[in-house]
Amino acid sequence: MDRQTVEMFTGDEENKLRRPGQELREGSYEPLAVKRSWIPKAGSKEKRPLGVPAVRDRVVQTALRNVL
């Protein structure tokens, strides 16, 4: 949704992580909208939805998973 790639996120991680970290501590963190893509089901003509979170949200999810 934010049109940011992982490559664009790298390089200035410290500043890009400071704000979400502060928001998490304050309880004001709001994830961005999830990009919805439809991918084919294996062995079928049907498609299933796939939600792709923004890079920032994936980084936050990974950090929280590591802490827990």
Task: Describe the structure concisely for a colleague.
With 68 residues, the protein is an alpha+beta fold.
Topology record:
Layout: H1 6-9, H2 13-26, E1 35-40, E2 47-52, H3 55-67
Antiparallel strand pairs: 1-2
Question: Explain this structure to me?
Answer:
- Strand 1 (35-40) and strand 2 form a beta hairpin.
- Helices cover 46% and strands 18% of the residues.
- The chain is an alpha+beta fold and 68 residues long.
- The chain has a two-stranded antiparallel sheet.
- The protein is built from three helices and two strands.
Radius of gyration: 15 Å
User: How many strands, what sense, and barrel or not for the largest sheet?
Assistant: 2 strands, antiparallel
Structural class by SSE content: alpha+beta
Number of helices: 3
Low-confidence sequence ranges? none
Order of helices and strands: HHEEH
Oligomer state equals single chain
Q: Helix proportion of residues, in percent?
A: 40-55%
